[in-house]
Amino acid sequence: MFTEFPERYITLGLKIAYYRKKAGLTQELLAERVGKSVNFIAQVEGTGTIRGVSLETLFKIAQVLDIPPAKLLADD
Predict the structure, then answer these.
(1) pLDDT tens digits for 18-76?
(2) Which structural domains are found in the chain, ordered by start?
(3) What pTM was computed for the model?
């Protein structure tokens, strides 16, 4: 995937992984709860690939992690 903002995608994935672990969820559980494959979650969280996420999926992930979606997109 080509993007002008690869660092933003990597940061998003790292934040998802952080909040997932904080919630005590495995990639498998998160994937099941958002209706995606484990491979998809692994690609999003991984730093070696750039994997896009739709807003719908972002909202579902935030809902499962019980955080506002903005936490995943905010510049920290």
Answers:
(1) 999 999 999 999 999 999 999 999 999 998 889 999 999 999 999 999 999 999 999 87
(2) 6-70 (1.10.260.40)
(3) 0.94
Listing DSSP states for 24-71 in one string gives T--HHHHHHHHT--HHHHHHHH-SSS-----HHHHHHHHHHHTS-THH
Q: How far is CA 9 from the centre of its chain?
A: 9
Q: Name the one residue in this structure whose structure tokens are 């958002």.
A: 34
Exposed e or buried b per residue across 28-52, where buried means at least 16 C-beta atoms within 10 angstroms of its C-beta:
eebbeebebeeebbbbbbeeeebbe
**H and E: helices and strands count for the chain:** 5, 0
